[in-house]
């Protein structure tokens, strides 16, 4: 490629990066400013840094510790059960190969495009006394992520040879021993993908807690940031600090598991 | 025999039962309740036929919601898939900044939609927001807008945010597909004298058609059932100007008109089914006669 053309492409690349980077930079830099300065919503560096004040202020006034705890519990428990239930189901569906497993696979594929029906879900939760409970929301997260993530696992099981199962069976392993001691460790890469995808979808979710945890003591981070903005819409420095706090855990996880998220999403979506 | 012993129904059951009860059952029962006068306490006294649907279509707020959902879905699907395809080809070129750009493009996908929406309320701020300040500084004052209150452009502003957040996903799906195309194919075409456009049109495009299909379907579904980004950016307002189907469902629900809310949910389901089947019919090779 000619030199000038390469330089031109590098410039284009940089400009595209700016479209992504500017909103993120804007949030970060303004979360460090004093309230008066942040209200300009500018891109300049703060003249007076107010990092500690902003973040401690948000921690208290947006009730972050409680929300952080709620979100963590919901996310960790949901993701844990999503990994176990989806991998086990996929194992059955891919290995058993009878009429039932074929039917179930069809139902799961239909579930990939089906939207959730929020009102009838609310009704069900209401009848089961699960509205405003962690248990209820965790069950909804498992159900809501089940189709796609089971599908991702099914795709991966094709790459684990059956001969492995057969060899272990000849060695006298028990059914659950075969899964937990021999198969499950082999799923590590796909489980890492499922972990980050499920973590993101639960951690960032707004709609489910908005409908089902609508009481201040059970608010998740997504809800606090939304309601905090409603009450403090002119305190941009605090709103931005709140946004950073909400985003940080996912960003950190992403930095560690970046490779797996791309692999998982492409494996699940490209094959379909 | 061994299969029955080793791959047990008890392995399938826990996840699948939760899925059936908490996902499939609400979807199925929705078909029934859409035809009842379900009230705020989730009781119904009779079947009302198509009354819920009629009152949805007679309400002017609802018809705006359908129109908006349609605009939003079409605009975001075109922009996410179109831009995604262009950008995937772009980051497939070896440049110094390629790796950085790939990570940057995907970064918004991992962020909370609420966080993104609130950041953009700042960027769209009419007097101090970055967008208008930028336009003014390059003397394009006439393009300055009240991005989130002008009812003629509000859906396009929201579509922009959705595109900003989700294009990274279509990019990596396209990129994964592009990277599976063997170099020999395009090189052979080059030797045969195919231009760069002919290579794209006749070699690359047919090979990545399944991913085009996937990306269109993901974008259509995402567009039709959008809620969080719209709710956080505008709350459906001003008035009903940026209402979409799911904000309308929430409004009916919060006012206790659950019959109408389930009817609107059912319509959403039908739209998704119809659009996905059409896309599949035209773009999925396996289904072509």
Question: What report would you give on this structure?
Answer:
The complex is a heterodimer of chains A (272) and B (289). By secondary structure, chain A is mostly helical. Chain A is built from 13 helices and no strands. The mean pLDDT of chain A is 89. By secondary structure, chain B is mainly alpha-helical. Chain B is built from 13 helices and no strands. Chain B has helices at residues 2-6, 9-33, 51-58, 60-91, 98-110, 113-123, 130-137, 154-178, 183-191, 196-224, 228-233, 245-254, 258-283. The model of chain B has no long low-confidence stretch (mean pLDDT 88). At the A-B interface, α1, α4, α5, α6 and α7 of A face α1, α2, α5, α6 and α8 of B.
Protein traits:
heterodimer, A: 272 residues, mainly alpha, MetI-like fold, 2 domains, 13 helices, B: 289 residues, globular
Secondary structure elements and their pairing?
The complex is a heterodimer of chains A (272) and B (289).
Chain A (H helix, E strand, L loop, with lengths): L2 H28 L4 H4 L12 H11 L2 H33 L2 H15 L4 H10 L6 H24 L4 H9 L4 H12 L1 H16 L3 H6 L8 H11 L4 H36 L1
Helix pairs in contact in A: 3-13, 4-5, 4-7, 4-10, 5-7, 7-10, 7-13, 10-13, 12-13
Chain B lengths: L1 H5 L2 H25 L17 H8 L1 H32 L6 H13 L2 H11 L6 H8 L16 H25 L4 H9 L4 H29 L3 H6 L11 H10 L3 H26 L6
The H-level CATH homologous superfamily of the largest domain in chain A, spelled out, is MetI-like
CATH architecture of the largest domain in chain A: Orthogonal Bundle
Shape of chain B: globular
If you consult CATH, what is the topology of chain B? MetI-like fold
First-residue to last-residue Cα separation of chain B? 39 Å
Q: Helical segment tally of chain A?
A: 13
Radius of gyration of chain B, taken over Cα atoms and rounded to an integer in Å:
23 Å
Just give the CATH class of the largest domain in chain A.
Mainly Alpha
* Element order of chain B: H for helix, E for strand: HHHHHHHHHHHHH
What is the number of strand segments of chain B?
Answer: 0
Number of domains of chain A: 2
């Amino acid at each position: 490629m000619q030199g000038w053309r390469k330089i031109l492409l590098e410039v284009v690349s940089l400009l595209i990066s700016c479209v992504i980077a500017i909103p993120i930079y804007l949030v970060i830099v303004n979360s460090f400013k004093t309230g008066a300065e942040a209200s300009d919503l500018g891109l300049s560096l703060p003249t007076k840094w107010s990092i500690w004040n902003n973040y401690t202020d948000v921690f208290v006034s947006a009730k972050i510790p409680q929300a952080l705890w709620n979100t963590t519990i919901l996310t960790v428990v949901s993701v844990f059960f999503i990994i176990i239930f989806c991998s086990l189901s996929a194992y059955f569906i891919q290995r058993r190969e009878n009429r039932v497993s074929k039917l179930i696979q069809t139902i799961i594929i239909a579930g990939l495009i089906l939207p959730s029906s929020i009102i009838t879900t609310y009704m069900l939760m209401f009848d089961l006394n699960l509205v405003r409970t962690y248990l209820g929301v965790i069950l909804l997260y498992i159900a809501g992520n089940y189709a796609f993530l089971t599908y991702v696992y099914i795709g991966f099981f094709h790459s684990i040879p059956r001969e492995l199962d057969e060899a272990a069976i000849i060695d006298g392993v028990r059914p659950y021993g075969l899964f937990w001691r021999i198969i499950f460790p082999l799923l590590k890469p796909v489980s890492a993908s499922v972990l980050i995808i499920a973590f993101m979808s639960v951690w960032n979710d707004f709609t489910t807690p908005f409908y089902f945890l609508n009481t201040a003591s059970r608010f998740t981070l997504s809800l606090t940031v939304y309601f905090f903005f409603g009450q403090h819409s002119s305190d941009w420095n605090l709103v931005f600090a709140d946004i950073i706090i909400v985003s940080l855990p996912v960003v950190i996880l992403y930095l560690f598991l970046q490779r797996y998220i791309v692999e998982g999403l492409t494996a699940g979506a490209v094959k379909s | 025999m061994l299969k029955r012993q080793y791959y047990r129904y008890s392995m399938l059951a826990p996840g699948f039962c939760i899925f059936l009860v908490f996902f499939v059952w609400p979807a199925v029962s929705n078909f029934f309740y859409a035809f009842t006068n379900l009230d705020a306490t989730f009781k119904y006294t009779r079947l009302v036929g198509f009354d819920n649907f009629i009152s949805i279509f007679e309400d002017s707020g609802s018809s705006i919601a359908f129109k908006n959902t349609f605009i939003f879905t079409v605009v975001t699907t075109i922009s996410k898939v179109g831009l995604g395809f262009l950008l995937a080809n772009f980051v497939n070129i070896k440049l110094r900044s390629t790796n950085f750009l790939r990570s940057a493009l995907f970064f918004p996908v991992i962020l909370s939609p609420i966080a993104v929406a609130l950041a953009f309320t700042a960027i769209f701020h009419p007097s101090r927001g970055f967008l208008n300040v930028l336009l003014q500084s390059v003397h394009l004052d006439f393009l300055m807008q009240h991005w989130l209150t002008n009812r003629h452009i509000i859906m396009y502003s929201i579509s922009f945010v959705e595109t900003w957040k989700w294009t990274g996903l279509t990019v990596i799906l396209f990129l994964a597909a592009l990277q599976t195309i063997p170099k020999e194919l395009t090189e052979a075409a080059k030797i045969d004298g195919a231009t760069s456009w002919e290579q794209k049109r006749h070699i690359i495009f047919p090979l990545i058609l399944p991913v085009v299909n996937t990306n269109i379907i993901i974008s259509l579904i995402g567009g039709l059932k959008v809620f969080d980004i719209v709710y956080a950016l505008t709350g459906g307002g001003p008035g009903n100007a940026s209402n979409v189907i799911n904000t309308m469902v929430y409004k009916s629900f919060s006012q206790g008109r659950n019959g109408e809310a389930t009817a609107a949910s059912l319509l959403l389901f039908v739209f998704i089914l119809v659009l996905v089947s059409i896309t599949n019919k035209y773009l999925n090779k396996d289904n072509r006669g």
